[in-house]
Input
Amino acid sequence: MVVIGLYDYFSDAVGLLHELERKSGINLYILFCNNFNSSPVRFYLKHLRRFLGLSFRDKIIIARLLIKKRLVMSIKSIHNSNVLLWIKKIKPDIGLHCTGAIYRKSLISLFRLGILNSHIGILPRYRGRSVMEWSILNGDPTGITAFFIDEGIDTGRDIIFTEKVDLKGLNSIKSAKEFLFNYRTKIFVKTISLLLKGNYKFQKNEVEKGLRYYVMSDLLKGVVEEIFKSEKK
Amino acid sequence: MINNNKKKILRKALSDRLEELSHIFLGQDKGSSEFSDVKDFEECLRLVIVKYYPKIKSGSFTQEEKKKYFNLLSGLAIKALGDDYRILDAFNNAYEIIIKIEWDSVDQKEYIIPFFRIYKYLLSHHLKNI
Output
């Protein structure tokens, strides 16, 4: 199975590299694009700074992938025609969504099975941003949903699985969010294993049963922080 | 479902925000009967937060975008009286960015004071109903 991890930063990708780089049955590529439209100098400096901040072990993994030409950087956006051409040449089965970009159909259709998202909210109820915080405010479970994306915001039709994640052991909303973001790598690995074994059944993402949420205000974030801490007691 | 503990925390936060607002002179308060409403509030909410809010936040808005932002926001006022806190939060977000910007007297009169009046009414309404 050919997998391309679509990332913005090295630091986000290393967790996945540790898990999947040498896993049998997986041909892993990592693609970094300039989705924030930075100048080339800024783009490379940003990545160099992140690279230098990695541990020796992580640097070795990155270097190994670079030598094998499995790690590709482009100063263009992910929708640039040369980037699309490269992806097409690789003939990927799956993409892993770890960028801030919203993908067009022309990109999504290059992946045989699609592009996977590991969304830090429970679908179909919670689409969009700050969903962990909104779930806590509404008294709903927190967790992650693995699904194949489409061009909309968390509206992709096929959910592979949903996992509730209890965050009560964590100290703050910030640490809870970091925990969920890091946990996404495990969800990707689990999802790929399920897909490799064919051991899954799609669940329909019934968007009409949920709502799109937006970035929460400082006022409500403060409320959620207090709720979170008070429920730990 | 928001339980009693959450209600208490929420009430305190809204009350503090209302207290902040009470230091701003707003003239005569606007009643809810003067609020406008929109047909497709989901789309209106999306436009307010996704399209116009980032422009206001970055200070890179045109006169037209500013007008649109405040008009759409006031169009959400009726829905913001309900228990869908996403709508009230569009007003919370707006307040948090508006107070960081220096508005001229024309903007103050045309957009900011009317916004504060609506927001004050919404906060009072929710405080009564939590």
In short: The radius of gyration of chain A is 18 Å. Helices of chain A lie at 10-20, 40-52, 56-67, 81-90, 105-108, 131-138, 173-197, 218-232.
